[in-house]
Design brief:
Elements (H helix, E strand, L loop, with lengths): L4 H25 L3 E6 L10 E5 L5 E6 L7 E2 L1 H5 L9 H12 L7 E6 L2 E2 L4 H5 L1 E2 L4 E2 L1 H5 L6 H13 L3 H9 L1 E5 L3 H14 L6 H16 L5 E2 H10 L9 E6 L12 E4 L20 H18 L5 E5 L4 H10 L7 E6 L2 E4 L10 E7 L5 E7 L5 H11 L3 E8 L12 H21 L5 E6 L2 H9 L7 E7 L2 E8 L3
Parallel strand pairs: 3-5, 4-6, 5-9, 11-12, 11-13, 13-14, 17-18, 17-19, 19-20
Antiparallel strand pairs: 1-2, 1-10, 2-3, 7-8, 14-15, 16-18, 20-21
Helix pairs in contact: 1-8, 1-9, 12-15, 14-15
């Protein structure tokens, strides 16, 4: 049985697009992949899928499908031109190899096919190493021309007009991959979609393959990871329906219910062996040298999705929650959410009209810096004052802001209250700093994690600010954010 030529061509395109979507999903997970192109004009006989890498070998793929199992890759197919004026598949493969390696460049040329390889052929059967999907050229060169392997080797070399050593050099960069069907590639793509933080349902898979098909039909060409992130967001392929997921392993490795779009891991930077003892970093310089730039880079990466909603999950202490909110600021139209105990707090909640209550005001020195102590789940006034008086910091006055009632575990009743309170606290300390000629701010927090995130999110047009962590009965500086 044979299919009409148009039907066969469509099946071949579908096979190519399924493999292309697989590699697109790989690009979302593999930082070494710089771009993926379908029908790349540079690819020659391997133009179906081109994967360009930053450090590894670029991969050029020829995707060749068949509709039925009676068609195989054998010497007749490889060495036979379609017409008197055309070149055989093997000649076209070799022509592309010569052009791509003319400057001594190493590339990976790969034939991906659902066809079987002729197991009776001395090179494609006896010498095709299934571990590496390459012809064993050492064995190929080690036999005489009187053997079956030698005769086949010499026939290929003569067909290409090259020596047997040149044939070996060509075959060393050529992989022969027998792959599954189009539906198999759909199955292979789904786990990668999940790992990339995308939906992995059947509808999402169809949309993803159509993304690749549109690249071809619209002549789009090379797609970078930033291009792809924007497309999957615009096509509603994100697992959280338009919300990106950033997982931050601060003081422990916490699994997330769905794979994150990006994960940061700072656990090993900490002193301590468990989440209870991990409060300070082994090297204090890493707060600003490693952790803060990592948050900045994460925001830049997630911004390439062209989505401005991000949910932050993980085990973090208050300074990192502040840094997380500060990295996705309100002024850049980010909406940030997190899980606070048993509910989700989001910065797009309507803020309540809350005026923070001043619990204390202390004159420390005659200098200009301002200290803000957040007293919501408890009152840190004594500890902060003791630290400031013993540290020698140029803090002129300390302000302690809290709820209308007594600080407690229930003092913050809702995310709307938290947004309103944090905005009010920011405005108060901004006014204090401006009155002191934009003095440096020193921030101490005893509050829910959501308050720290919301403070950071709204910390706009503020002087330079240092965040402090409480450990073993005393405070230590962590991040210092430059003034705006």
């Amino acid at each position: 049985m044979t299919l009409p030529s148009r039907a066969a061509a469509i099946r071949g395109d579908d096979y190519q697009h399924a493999i292309g979507w697989y590699w697109a999903c790989q690009m979302l997970q593999d930082p070494d992949i710089g771009s993926v192109t379908i029908e790349d004009p540079e690819g020659g006989a391997f133009d179906d899928i081109l994967i360009r890498r930053r450090t590894g070998l670029d991969t050029y793929i020829q995707a060749k499908s068949s509709n039925y199992g009676n068609t195989i890759v054998d010497a007749a197919w490889l060495l036979t031109p379609k017409s008197d004026k055309s070149r055989s598949p093997l000649q076209r493969f070799h022509d592309t190899y010569l052009r791509l390696t003319a400057d001594q460049r190493l590339v990976s040329l790969e034939l991906w096919t659902n066809r079987g390889f002729d197991h009776d052929n001395p090179l494609l059967g006896q010498l095709l190493d299934r571990k590496h999907d390459k012809v064993d050229t050492a064995r190929m060169l080690g036999v005489s021309s009187r053997t079956k392997i030698g005769k086949e080797r010499d026939a290929w070399a003569q067909h290409l007009g090259i020596t047997k050593d040149e044939l070996a050099a060509f075959l060393n960069q050529f992989s022969w991959k027998q792959t599954g069907s189009e539906l198999d590639w759909h199955k292979h793509a789904k786990p990668l979609m999940q790992l990339a933080g995308l939906r992995d349902d059947d509808e999402a898979l169809t949309i993803g393959v159509n993304v690749v098909r549109d690249w071809v039909s619209n002549g789009i060409g090379t797609r970078t990871v930033d291009d792809l992130r924007a497309e999957v967001a615009n096509r509603n392929l994100l697992a959280l329906t338009g919300t990106l997921l950033l997982a931050v392993d601060g003081i422990d490795h916490d699994p997330t219910p769905t794979p994150p779009n990006l994960r940061l891991d700072f656990v090993d930077l900490h002193e301590g062996d468990d989440s209870f003892s991990r409060k300070l970093l082994k090297d204090p310089a890493d707060w600003d040298r490693v952790v803060r730039p990592a948050f900045t880079d994460a925001a830049r990466t997630l911004a390439s999705y062209r989505v401005r909603r991000v949910h932050i999950a993980g085990a973090l202490r208050l300074p990192m929650w502040f840094a997380a909110g500060r990295s996705f600021p309100e002024v850049k139209k980010w909406i940030v959410s997190m899980d606070q105990v048993d509910e989700q707090w989001s910065t797009d909640t309507i803020p309540e009209d809350i005026a923070p209550r001043e619990l204390a005001r202390k004159d420390i020195t005659g200098d200009t810096d301002v200290a803000l102590a957040v007293a919501l789940t408890g009152d840190p006034t004594t500890q902060v004052e003791d630290y400031l008086r013993s540290s020698g910091l140029p803090v002129g006055r300390m302000i302690v802001l809290g709820p209308h009632g007594k600080p407690s575990a229930t003092a913050v009743p809702s995310p709307g209250w938290a947004m309103g309170w944090s905005r009010g606290a920011r405005d108060i300390v901004r006014g204090e700093a401006q009155a002191a000629d934009n003095a440096h701010i020193h921030l101490f927090m005893l509050c829910p994690a959501g308050i720290a995130m919301m403070l950071g999110h709204q910390w706009n047009v503020m002087p330079a600010t240092t965040i402090y962590e409480f450990s073993e009965g005393k405070y230590s500086p962590t991040f210092t954010f430059p003034g705006a």
